[in-house]
Design brief:
There is one protein chain. The protein is of the alpha+beta class and 388 residues long. The termini are far apart. The relative contact order is 0.16. The chain has two domains: 191 residues, Endonuclease, Chain A (2-Layer Sandwich); 166 residues, Endonuclease Chain A (Endonuclease, Chain A, 2-Layer Sandwich). A 15-stranded mixed β-sheet has the order 4-3-2-5-6-7-1-8-14-13-12-9-10-11-15, sandwiched between helices. It is built from 14 helices and 15 strands.
Length: 388
Amino acid sequence: MKPVSEAAHFSRENIEKVYGTGFADGNRVTLLWKDKEAFRTIFDFIRQAKKCVCLEFYIFRNDETGTELAEILRKKAMEGVGVYIIYDHFGSLFTPLRFWRHLMEAGVQIRASRPFKWASPFHYVHRDHRKLIIIDGERAFTGGLNIANEYRGYSVLRKRKKGWRDTGIFLEGPIAKILFDNFKRSWRIWKGAPIQYDVRPNPVERGVPVLPIFASSAKGRRYMRKLIYYSIANSQKSIFLTTAYFTPSRRMLHVLEDAVSRGVDVRLLLPGRTDVSAAHYAGRAFFARLLKAGVHIYSYGGEILHAKTAVFDEAWSIIGSANLDFQSLRRNDEGNVGIRDSGFGRKMTGLFDEDLQKSERIRPEIWAKRPVWEKLKEYFFALFRRRL
């Protein structure tokens, strides 16, 4: 019998056929999940930029974290480095115009994505939820982190404080150029002047293949969903899912139940507390059904869990900005990467196990005895799960 990492269902050819896009070979990948360490790494690499820095974020606040990054970007722009920012209009709605103006005065170029339009107000539900940084077209960061204090664990009083539990990934190699090209397409869509700088990064020795899973259209989101469902439906050993917001579709429920029925170890790690109560309760409305099917559900007991990761058979991993909810899978522009490598898959599994040590498993017999008012809130918000 072949090892799981060599199984045909997660072969390169099958994944590329399902998603319709090829892997980029020869990349170095570094997991970032410790709040202050992640931001320190990101800020340090931006300071090293020589020619170009591109950022695309759902939330970019003018708090201490955002102001510190803004000052780094201002300095790079004044040094002659091209600096480009795309921020989501809704996600950064309360970031004042004077903050952006101060950056533009230093030469930073800025565009707002998905702005509100009176001519088509209902389109405002579509958001640019991506988190992406490209440095000189050779290095890239993506994941779940936004630019705000809560993700970094910043404390004005300098007391010990932890940021939200999130996961990002730092990438070096040919994948960076693909993500850079993706950013340039977004930049053109939002009426930015052409970015002339180009690069062809060399493959990293003994690097790993990385698949760009960036969705910014109905077709792109359809292929992203197709890949996620394929990955669940074809796992043979284990499925470890971490998500900040979980409001499953009927199809998601079916594929998870089917996976358990064929003997797959299915584990779902969700926040114990959340910043969006409505989505939190809407997702919990489906716990009883999943628990009955044999899915193991864990409630994270530390700080707010904001990570979005998936590991299938310890061989195929997906990391990025997409949650397992209607908003991410049907409406948002999302940015993820897939990594087909058993060594990396084991690291992801180790990280998942580490998170489980801070979590409480939800037992069916205990869950059935939760208060009636909790059940009523779950039922009520589940009615609106496509609006959350």
